[in-house]
What does this fold into?
Amino acid sequence: LSGPGTFTVFAPTNDAFAKIPADALNGLLAKPDDLKAVLLRHVLPNKVPSSAIPRGSTTVGTVGGEDITVLRNYNTIKIKSSAGSAKVILADVAATNGVIHAVDTVF
It folds into this structure.
């Protein structure tokens, strides 16, 4: 993500990573391709501030090639993927190459 372009990262917090069972986390760390797929599932190839997320359900493609669904209900933003769901708990953290939205769960 240090390359050119703009990105949106749905970044799991430390507490989100702490929810992952140790065996599952160690399994991911032992399989770099699987870990990469999980991480890239959290990244969009363009900058999407929370103000640009419409109400309702929107399907978007991730950098990893997977589609995720972004759901907005007034001020609540949730993400659903094939691996689970998460809630945005801190939106619009500025980054030099995009925006970060902190989420409560690794999805």
Notes: The mean pLDDT is 95. The first strand starts at residue 7 and ends at 12.
